[in-house]
Design brief:
This protein has 204 residues and is of the alpha+beta class. 18% of the residues are buried. The chain has 2 domains: 31 residues; 152 residues, Immunoglobulin-like, CATH 2.60.40. Strand 8 and strand 9 form a beta hairpin. The strands form 2 sheets. Strands 3, 4, 5, 6, 8, 9 and 10 form a 7-stranded antiparallel beta sheet that branches. It contains 2 helices and 10 strands. It comes from Actinidia rufa. Pfam families: LEA_2.
């Protein structure tokens, strides 16, 4: 015959229960304070700012041109040295992925140069030198080249897109993209950059 146990579950003494309650409340309050501090820092001191890409200079490295009047064709060899700087105004580092600088002729991509992935420390500026070489075979079917060279002005443009992330307090990751484009006019006779207009855009 089974006997029923009258043993009641043990409960902490009132004082011990009170201490446990105080400890739990203190831990919760500490967590709330830490979260509030992190949010405030994230919105003020560590607020994500947009890295700025600037084209410091564009210069002709090589420029060789020959005109075949009989065939109405032009043979071009063009290389540009582009000096870029990327400024990170954030209080934390900015990491960007592999990218590419592009050389265009009337909207057509005619040359490329890689931009290797890297990291820019807080409040630092990174400078990079790129060489963009025009690939002549991409212009064979473009009928505007001959007329542009004969007129004495060759329009080119450069475009870069640098994409990366800003890590705030190692918890919040904000994606940032910086765009740079420059419109160039190459003086065929002087073999120099006659004019340069650059546009910059960044977004979070």
């Amino acid at each position: 015959m089974e006997t029923q146990s009258n043993t009641k579950p043990m409960t902490p003494p009132p004082r011990r229960w009170k201490r446990l309650r105080i400890v739990c409340l203190a831990v919760i309050a500490l967590i709330v304070v830490l979260v509030l501090v992190m949010v405030i820092l994230g919105l003020t001191v560590f607020k994500a700012k947009r890295p700025l890409t600037t084209v410091n200079s564009v210069a002709l490295k090589d420029f060789d041109v020959s005109v075949d009047i009989a065939r109405l064709r032009v043979n071009l060899n063009v290389s540009l040295d582009v000096n870029l700087s990327v400024k990170n105004p954030n209080k934390v580092g900015f990491k960007y992925t592999n990218s590419t600088a592009v050389l265009k002729y009337r909207g057509q991509v005619v040359g490329e140069a890689p931009i290797p992935a890297s990291k820019i420390s807080a409040d630092q500026t990174s400078t990079m030198n790129l060489t963009l070489t025009l690939l002549a075979d991409r212009l064979i079917s473009n009928g505007n080249v001959y007329s542009d060279v004969i007129s004495g002005t060759l329009p080119l443009s450069t475009f870069t897109r640098i994409s990366g992330k800003v890590n705030i307090l190692s918890i919040i990751k904000i994606h940032v993209v910086s765009y740079t484009s420059c419109d160039l006019s190459i003086n065929v006779l002087n073999r120099s950059v006659a004019s340069q207009t650059c546009h910059y855009k960044t977004k979070l």
